[in-house]
Amino acid sequence: MSNFKLPPSLSIHGNEKIAKDILSRIWGKKGVFTCTVANTLTSTIPGISDAGDTPELTLFTPAADAELLVLGKTVCMKGIPINPGGIPTPATLTQAALEISNMPFFIVNGGCKVKPNLPCIEMGGEYGNYVTSGKAVSNVKKVFENGVILGKMLAHGHDFVVISESCAGGTTTALAVLMAMGIIKENLVSSSSPNNPRELKTKTVMEGLKAAGIGIGDLANDPLKAIGCVGDPMMPANIGIIIGAAKHVPVIVGGGTQMAAVIAAAVKIDPSIVGNIFQGTTRWLMGDPNSNMAKIMDSISPDIPIVYVNMDYSSSPYEGLQAYEWGYIKEGVGCGGSSVAAIIQSSGKVTCDELLEKVHEIYKKIMNFD
Amino acid sequence: MSNFKLPPSLSIHGNEKIAKDILSRIWGKKGVFTCTVANTLTSTIPGISDAGDTPELTLFTPAADAELLVLGKTVCMKGIPINPGGIPTPATLTQAALEISNMPFFIVNGGCKVKPNLPCIEMGGEYGNYVTSGKAVSNVKKVFENGVILGKMLAHGHDFVVISESCAGGTTTALAVLMAMGIIKENLVSSSSPNNPRELKTKTVMEGLKAAGIGIGDLANDPLKAIGCVGDPMMPANIGIIIGAAKHVPVIVGGGTQMAAVIAAAVKIDPSIVGNIFQGTTRWLMGDPNSNMAKIMDSISPDIPIVYVNMDYSSSPYEGLQAYEWGYIKEGVGCGGSSVAAIIQSSGKVTCDELLEKVHEIYKKIMNFD
What we know:
Two copies of one chain form a homodimer.
Chain A: E1 10-13, H1 16-26, E2 31-38, H2 61-71, H3 91-101, E3 105-111, E4 120-122, H4 140-155, E5 160-163, E6 165-166, H5 170-180, H6 198-212, H7 223-230, H8 234-246, E7 251-254, H9 258-269, E8 277-282, H10 283-286, H11 293-300, E9 306-309, H12 319-322, H13 335-345, H14 352-366
Parallel strand pairs in A: 2-3, 2-5, 2-6, 3-4, 5-7, 7-8, 8-9
Antiparallel strand pairs in A: 1-9
């Protein structure tokens, strides 16, 4: 729509025409948010994932994120998921966006070793093996098919669907799947640390591809097989949801480079969804000097735009939040997608300042400040 | 609200003031529908349940009902759930109401032996044992607590919540729980057959109470224990959902006498929900000469009204549907609650004729008529 005006809280990368067409169709309408949680043992390889204070704790992060969203506190572990530096999970921003928008939301269990203590939508998946095994995910087809059904269900009665993930180690498995599909031939994925362990990730991925007996690009036409070999259990669930939902309503794929593998697979399986999906993410992710979301997306399709929220934590009085401006975290738990969605539902009335204020409220409560 | 006008498609029993207050608060608003599926081996006791062509098939009925709602066809069995006479499941009416209203809906797995082939919200329950064992349901407290969490989640972003059930054998377990709680001292529950096997049900229930070592009214103050002894796994999930949701938004308890046990338990555990819940059911159930919903409800609380939909299948060209007028089926799968909700969402514009027309469309498609 030519006369659609983007508020200053949002920016677009890529095909602006498609982005504005989708935005204008869902502006002021009501969506539903889902977060798919899953584990891959890959996150416990020392140095791979910073989404947890220690390699072992990375397995608790998805469940703890889900508990934080639903219960406002964690049950499966003490405290909230943090990076080794003590920087809080992006779920704090997701929570803020969901509260402000009053958007319905559900947790999807893609396959967890540590399950959240709350009712999840069950997909029949198992937690993932080490990507280095070359046999990373079981039951891929069944979980994908369940995803398609769930996507259709979510499209019923909602004007748009937001999907997201919490799966530590997921940028490594995303890199592996993107390479198996030949989408990228170099390491462009992000990290929750400003010191992206790119060499370690690449080495780990190459080990996984070798164990699976596949070369770069070998599975360009069989993304579900690529996931079975070197992916994680979040992927088939979310790929299914996109395909099931995008036939009926627009889908916002909330997340960073981790979700690029999901988008690439979904578009390969069903190209007809292009024009009805965009990625929803954060300014932090787009500005990351150590990854290149834009370049990955350009390789997947020129017609899947990115809409990102211009959140800025530099004025926050809390160091844990300021750290987002120093290259920590950037994305996760759909913090970008849910923020974009909150702005859409309010027809642009919700601002970044309002979101930040709510984040402060949540953060103070969780940290027992004041 | 004194100037609230009930459309001819709906009638009220009980406290009209409370009913109209709730209706006026949600009139034209957007709800969410859930159906909790569960199994109890009680349904396989010959003669107890007609919700299936044979005693064994009664275990497939909940899963098949769920599949019908979500997929529009059954996967776990051939054909659709029918009574021995070939009368189709009330899920056909639920489907019609959900389609017309475009209301979002989810299947909740309270505890199934035969699971639906689709993504369910998982409550951590197991399928139920024979009521005659006196140890009918395991994990009651955990499922109840998950229900409370889910109820709160469903209240987020929806103006009201509709709950329902598909659990064959459920009127027998309802009778058992209502007697253990001392709500009724005689058999007033319904049956999906016009020949309600009241003596068999009473005998079965008395056997269960004896096995559990409890007399009538002994568990008046411990409904969750009553369920553990002689209930079914649908109950703790739905009791939790009511309590979790009704603190925030109105709840419509869709169903017949089976749901009376759920209502009785919920009100005993949290009396503060009174004034924010009503039962949503059908004219068929209210007019049943072999049960007495009105009397049961009066014993539970004078302030929980019944709102029922005046569906009438007597003009239907299909015998399977006409049979509803002869005392078959009456309720189930939230057919009454979803119909009431569809009328509410449309501010009364949806009529019984429109619902019937849609039922015909669905019925013809399922039966491969034309």
